[in-house]
């Protein structure tokens, strides 16, 4: 392939992604869903004007890395400390209940071969996909009603962030077990070794970077060095620890989320993300979609998957909130707010696909989950808030 | 190659490019020279920690496309109309004198096999490399002295822009002749066909885009659609007209340079450029550099190349200015201001290398030209202005 030949593919991808994304937003669906559908449209499934290629998969991998880095950068550690313990418990329960329920669902459908078997691992992975909350849509709905700064809103927000961190630790564990010969003790050692190393080293990097950021604020070198750090951590995680590169990228984001220019770095990274790499990732999922494999069983599994994923968060987080003396309706609000899934669930699914852990058919279930949860959550929240309103804060322009 | 494996290469490239670029700036050399040296340092020539790869060459191609698109976007057509004719003549002479002198230099060194021969084509290509002025350094020097808005400064600026346009038409012609079987008439037809089509179609696109930009100013879709347009034009130029993709990208930039959000698009494209793609291009030149092939003849040729390239612009543009009744010193100022070469010369050289028109050794000559002209021009201009000062405008902060 000559270098210029990829230009047409990229142009078609980013233009169709934008168009379908905007269309999706107009019908109140998440933009990523529009981007995936764009991929189905232009891919081998339908029009066949763009084919998946190794080159596109590299762009798409960089897209995922940038999304995870950005998610890390947007973490507000100060805010977390404040609403700390309650949100932490809700997040923990909100990770483990879906994890167990997801694994149970898979086992119910496909049977159980004992702990450590391939089926056990697949079941765990299906559970993993269910863990990651993407609160973007919830936040928007709460903002619209002017209740984001309320106790419920803040609890959801903090719990969703902690949920990401715990989710990624769980994913890291599960993925490290992919090699059937690996002992649990080695896996644990590797994961904790990586986490410990990156937090100790991360602290040193943070201190250095902070000093240096204060010396050269808002210069181009800041996002460039930050991005290099992200790439290096992602590479080191995968190459030397057998840990997913997205974990490395996310940790790089967390290391830098408290430097003064974190928002500046995030903006620059996002420009790269939304103009090039992220659409290639989401459209790429559509390109790789093969609708011919869909049968009754897959559809049944997908519907069950969606129901379990949503109920597990609703009930898990709701019950956890109940332990902290939230009122009944507030518990349901928190549970409902945590139901939405988005990019991260897709990223985990894609990781599983590319490692051959799960077959491509499962992405249908995940896409269905994203669409359903994104539509139901805001409607449900509005109902709950109209039944039991909170003192509404000023809808400030600021 | 697994997708994550490229992350380390990219990280090493962008970090070393930034570091060496800043170092170069500190010693008053152009930053791109620092980036090329970074490539020599980390490449097979010395440390050998990054090797050129097909993946990197795709990133680097996109880098070139973005640089040329940005150059097109930054064209100020209004400004051109004002200082129009004089600048046009200076630019024409400033393109053709170096073109002829460069070809003559090659012929003097390596002989002449008749018109249409391979040697003739190579000679023309060497001339092409000499045509493109990069006035960045001149502009900075004039700004520093507060004389950019003077008559000489404005003439240099306009001439340099027109020079780019004529240069790219000439390059397009020369490259289209690469196929020895191609008739001059077919080449002419293709080039003019493409130019005519892109200007007619470009006018329609411009009108549509302008309307639409006014409806959705400063939204993400603007730079995304603009970028797609650039990629599509680049692809169509290369695939259907046999014209360099960089020509297509440059024309896409010119088509959009008058929409209200041109600067906004340029900023977004530049973020992608400077964070990822452009450093990969410049470092890539260093990576591909093979210093082992350098011998006495190459060194002699390089020195002659630098001298001819600089004198051809100085004398050509100076004499042309003389026809418009500029004073003697002002003519020298204009000639000196047009001497600097930069990115575009490198891009043309790289095009020639990748098409096998010229051997890799010649990039040494071009790099030497960039370094020499960038150092001599500002010093020379300062001397000229201190001898014959212009009314200095306010050095405004605005």
Features:
398 residues; mainly alpha; Na+/H+ antiporter like fold; disordered C terminus
Count of helix runs of chain A: 15
Mean pLDDT value of chain A: 88
- Quaternary state reads homodimer
Main β sheet profile of chain A: none
Report the strand count of chain A: 0
Helix content of chain A: over 70%
- Overall 3D shape of chain A: globular
Q: How many domains make up the 3D coordinates of chain A?
A: 1
- Report how far the terminal alpha carbons of chain A are from each other: 51 Å
What proportion strand of chain A?
A: under 5%
CATH topology of chain A: Na+/H+ antiporter like fold
Uncertain residue segments of chain A: 394-398
Greatest interface by residues involved: A-B, 41 and 41 residues
Q: How would you describe this structure to a colleague?
A:
The structure is a homodimer of 398-residue chains. With 398 residues, chain A is mainly alpha-helical. Chain A has one domain (55-390): Na+/H+ antiporter like fold, CATH 1.20.1530. Chain A is 77% helix and 0% strand. Chain A contains 15 helices and no strands. Chain A has helices at 5-26, 31-42, 54-73, 77-110, 118-131, 136-145, 151-176, 184-215, 221-241, 245-256, 262-288, 296-322, 328-337, 343-354, 362-387. In chain A, helix 6 (136-145) runs parallel beside helix 15 (362-387). The first copy, chain A, is globular, with a radius of gyration of 21 Å. Mean pLDDT of chain A is 88; it is low at 394-398.
């Amino acid at each position: 392939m000559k270098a210029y030949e990829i230009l047409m593919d990229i142009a078609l991808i980013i233009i169709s992604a934008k168009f379908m994304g905007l269309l999706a937003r107009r019908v109140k669906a998440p933009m990523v869903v529009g981007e995936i559908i764009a991929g189905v449209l232009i891919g081998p499934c339908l029009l066949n004007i763009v084919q998946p290629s190794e080159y596109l998969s590299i762009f798409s991998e960089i897209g995922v890395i940038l999304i995870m880095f950005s998610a890390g950068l947007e973490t507000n550690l100060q805010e977390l400390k404040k609403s700390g313990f309650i949100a932490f418990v809700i997040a923990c329960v909100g990770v483990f209940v879906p994890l167990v329920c997801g694994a149970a669902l898979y086992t119910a459908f496909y049977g159980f071969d004992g702990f450590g078997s391939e089926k056990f691992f697949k079941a765990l992975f299906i559970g993993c996909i269910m863990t990651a909350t993407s609160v973007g849509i919830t936040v928007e709905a709460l903002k619209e009603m002017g209740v984001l700064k309320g106790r419920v809103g803040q609890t959801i927000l903090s719990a969703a962030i902690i949920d990401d961190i715990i989710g990624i630790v769980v994913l890291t564990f599960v993925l490290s077990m992919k090699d059937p010969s690996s002992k649990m003790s080695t896996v644990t050692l590797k994961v904790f070794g990586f986490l410990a190393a990156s937090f100790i080293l991360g602290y040193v990097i943070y201190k250095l970077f902070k000093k240096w950021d204060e010396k050269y604020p808002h210069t181009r070198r800041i996002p460039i060095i930050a991005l290099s750090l992200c790439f290096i951590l992602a590479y080191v995680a995968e190459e030397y620890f057998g840990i997913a590169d997205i974990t490395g990228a996310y940790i790089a984001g967390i290391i830098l989320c408290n430097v003064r220019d974190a928002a500046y770095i995030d903006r620059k990274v996002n420009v790269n993300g939304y103009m090039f790499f992220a659409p290639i990732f989401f459209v790429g999922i559509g390109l790789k979609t093969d609708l011919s494999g869909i049968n009754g069983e897959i559809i049944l599994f997908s519907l069950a998957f969606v129901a379990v994923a949503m109920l597990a968060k609703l009930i898990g987080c709701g019950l956890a909130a109940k332990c902290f003396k939230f009122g009944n309706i507030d518990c349901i609000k928190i549970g409902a707010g945590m139901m939405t899934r988005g990019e991260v669930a897709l990223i985990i699914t894609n990781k599983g696909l590319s490692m051959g852990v799960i077959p491509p058919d499962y992405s249908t279930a995940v896409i269905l989950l994203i669409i359903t949860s994104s539509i139901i959550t805001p409607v449900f929240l509005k109902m709950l808030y109209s039944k039991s309103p909170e003192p509404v804060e000023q809808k400030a322009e600021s």
